[in-house]
Amino acid sequence: MRRGAIREYSIACYMAKQRFCRKCLKRSKRRLFEQISAFKSQALYLKQNLNTQAIAALQHEFIEIGIDIAQLIQAMEKTIAEARSFVAVLSDRKALPTSGHVDNLYNLLYVD
Length: 112
What we know:
Blueprint: H1 3-93, H2 99-110
């Protein structure tokens, strides 16, 4: 073969390899995008599932807090009722201390 023909053959082979590589790259790119799309779908599904679980857990916590608050209010109402009955008993016996007695009691307990 002559030198120019060899060179043209080399260029033609090089060009054929480039076309083949481009086709391979395009095919790989298409497959990669398909995989990325599937991955995004799975990620979205997991995210929605986790959000649903988190919301359900928060709703459960909200219900428990509501029950605790209701129990606390009942305990406070019971304590207030007991305090009122105690004050009523003291009022009936006229045994409420005057302010002077309270000051004396405070001085005995807290002042050196």
